């Protein structure tokens, strides 16, 4: 596809400085201050004039034309969430209008959906940005409430047991069980989590890594990606995170994902 001259990214020295600084892990606020801009928005205006746009997933600026090419993939990965972010990035965007256009009851329902997909509202950008850690579904959020509601133990009986020391000695054990509740449920009810793929948002900068594997495994990855509508990158991220947790790197993974 021939890119019009006025849409081609301009890689001048200032643009390279900004891209390099963000790739090193600096925030836009830090970088703007270092480069002498009044604030982040001033720097944002400059780089947008060079045909770059902010990519919240990569946490860096990317060429506008690249963003357009990858738009379809982004929408497949994030469903309506990607459309919400895209529509809000347009000038004069109205949250209530966007909610109605995408089939939400109102902007509050849209907000709940975006939160469940791992996004949070950034008032400075006037848009949703991704959070770090495991994305918690609405079902997962409701589970503790359901368990409490279904409990048949009366408050008086609980107080009596605790008062007599009947439960106090079990509190450490109960806390341990609560911490590993999800793993225990998988053991007690085999297959209960089958088909439910955890979603993680890993902080950092996207990097290409080439590894060799048997062609049979590679084909399984391709087939699974297509069947479950999940990117190959997400497959490997989930696989590595679960592997590290299982084989001695649980603390490191929890630190990476913000303790979630």
Topology overview:
Elements: H1 13-23, H2 28-34, H3 40-48, E1 52-55, E2 60-63, H4 64-69, H5 71-78, H6 80-88, H7 95-101, H8 107-116, E3 119-122, E4 127-130, E5 133-134, H9 138-150, H10 155-163, H11 171-179, H12 181-188, E6 200-201, H13 215-228, H14 232-246, H15 250-256
Antiparallel strand pairs: 1-2, 3-4, 5-6
Helix pairs in contact: 5-6, 14-15
Backbone shape: globular
Strand order of the largest sheet: 1-2
Q: In the CATH classification, which architecture of the largest domain applies? A: Orthogonal Bundle
Mean pLDDT comes to 76
Tally of DSSP β-strands: 6
How many domain units? 4
CATH topology of the largest domain: Arc Repressor Mutant, subunit A
Radius of gyration, in Å, reads 23 Å
Low-confidence segments, given as residue ranges, are 69-78, 138-151, 190-194
Question: Helical region count?
Answer: 15
Percent range of helical residues: 40-55%
